[in-house]
Design brief:
By secondary structure, this protein is of the alpha/beta class. It contains nine helices and nine strands. The chain has a five-stranded parallel beta sheet with strand order 6-5-2-7-8, sandwiched between helices. A two-stranded parallel ribbon has the order 1-9. The longest helix has 22 residues. It starts with 22 loop residues before the first strand and ends with a strand.
Length: 244
């Protein structure tokens, strides 16, 4: 088992005798969407490049786009426009680019997306433990709910908040605090699970526990450098480490 800024909890899951429960008295989990439950990068790649084509800009590769995902649609559009345009031109083209991106994204929302391994089993295991579940993402709610439905995940969640559901989005703690209030729970009774620093910063500020997954889109930065309670290899591993 590695020790450092966070606990590599996935390393303790090689056998039943070695499993360590690191989170106790947890009653609910708040789970991120893009990069945590779903690999949506191919959808982003498709929509971004069709938008760029309309603006006579060259396409971007998928790895570049992954680094821009996670801080909301407006940030994504400004980041991808900044590849090739200066700041004044980015702002001049922003409204047109946003409308084009949203049109293309809605046309294929979920078609190119895949569910990460361990997600369905993890959600089932959390339900079996009696955990209440919420999905909190920075993705617009108009994209989020149809995507969860298309991928067969919507029925797991009592609450779903998108990036435009509340006045602030992650890394602001408001969405997590709101879920805690909705569930009637103290933040210490809730764990956030996500793929990026957004999730960890929001959880720390809200007073929730937090686990990170090592895959996904952490803005091109190492997940090892994020201040969390641990890194789990999948949602199923997270479920094993939660004592409800």
């Amino acid at each position: 088992m590695q020790c450092g800024r966070n606990l590599q909890v996935s390393n303790v899951l090689s056998g039943p005798a070695e499993i360590t429960i690191v989170l106790k008295d947890i009653k609910a989990a708040i789970i991120d969407l893009d990069g945590t439950m779903l690999d949506t990068a191919p959808d982003f790649h498709y929509a971004v490049n069709w938008m760029r084509e309309e603006l006579d800009l060259p396409p971007l590769n998928i790895e570049a786009i992954k680094d821009f995902v996670g801080k909301g649609t407006e940030n994504l559009i400004r980041r991808v426009l900044a590849v090739g345009l200066n700041h004044p031109e980015v702002e001049r083209q922003f409204a047109k680019a946003l409308a084009a991106y949203e049109r293309h994204y809605l046309a294929i929302n979920g078609d190119l997306t895949s569910i990460y391994p361990g997600v369905v089993d993890g959600l089932e295991a959390m339900h079996a433990k009696g955990l209440r579940l919420a999905c909190v993402t920075n993705k617009p709610i108009a994209f989020t709910k149809p995507l969860l439905e298309k991928k067969g995940l919507s029925h797991y969640f009592e609450i779903v908040y998108g990036g435009d559901s509340l006045p602030q989005k992650k890394p602001d703690p408001l969405p997590l605090i709101t879920v805690c209030n909705d569930f009637g729970l103290q933040p210490r009774q809730v764990v956030a699970i996500g793929d990026s620093s957004n999730d960890a910063v929001a959880a720390r500020a809200a007073g929730c526990r937090v686990l990170n997954v090592p895959y996904g889109y952490n803005h091109g930065q190492s997940i090892q450098d994020v201040d969390s309670d641990g890194i789990v290899s999948s949602l199923l591993d997270a479920a094993h480490l939660i004592s409800a």
